[in-house]
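REQUEST ID: PR-0412
SUBMITTED BY: lab tech R.K.
PRIORITY: routine
TASK: structure prediction, single protein chain
INPUT:
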Amino acid sequence: MNTTPAATDRRARAEQARDSLVASMPRQDLAAERKEARVGDAVILEDHAGLLVLEEPRQRARHSARDRRSRYRAYVVEPDDTPSCRICAAPMRALGTLRILGRHEPRVHQCTACGFVQTDGPWWLDEAYSDAITATDLGLLARCRALSARIPSVLACTSALHGPVLDWGGGYGTLTRMLRDQGVDCWHSDPYCSNIHARGFDASLESRERWAAVLAVEVIEHLADPMDFFRRAAARTDLIIATTETVSIPAPALDDWWYWAPEHGQHVAFYSRLALARIGDAIDMRYVRAGRVHAWTRDAGPLQRLAMGQSPLRRALLALRRRKSLLGSDYTAAVRRLMPGP
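STATUS: complete
OUTPUT:
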């Protein structure tokens, strides 16, 4: 992999700082010296040259002072670095610094082309995800209740209503269960959260060659590499449905929008409507705004896309195509799993 002279210089300075710090004090004192706490297996230090990150592998063993230097991987994020947009690769402009979890201060940038907003790093995610569902997500049940009606109406505009649907990042399985109650063959996927309400219906994106639809409900704002998800999902389905709050162009002040959510630190990607459309271009899908739901479709024609964007038309199509609830058959399957027999 080719590296620029600037990148080589940053790495050399990072490694020099690492060697000096690690050799001069015990490992447990590294964070205290700069008044920054450890985050998982990383020590985050700030100085005039930028943000110095020392990451330690998870294996814990005794090492000499010399060996201890080599067990840290070091890199520097400089204040004058200008990142490129993770959606369209265009230059970005700085919005300021956001204070996350009361002590991490990454810069926040907005794309000059598509309006997408991203943070530096993120290096604090291990700490932010000590609980997968944040204590401030008080609207989870109300959101799932509303979406259990809205998402089937979007599916009804295509053939996806009658096929298997993946709830990617499905949390406790609440929406998965509610959609199954509505007759949608929905499956749950979330490696970071326990599936409480849709047990027996776990899957992954790669479990099937094709999904009728892939859902990402209040998920894409958590993604440090959004295009990785969208490309992988687009390879498995012709319909992606997501929910997220959209950011304006220009973005609101960093102290004047609740969705920045610095108190839990899990939101690291913020999408303008233009950025959502650019995602569609990148994965060869059409972006459609269906009320508060965002959809990307490959096979829906103009009339189907029109219906997606009109709530009365969506509801009418759903009334014509609604399927029987899966609650009864799911109950029977659950009993059989608990009481296997001939």
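NOTES: The longest helix spans residues 5-24.
REVIEWED BY: pending
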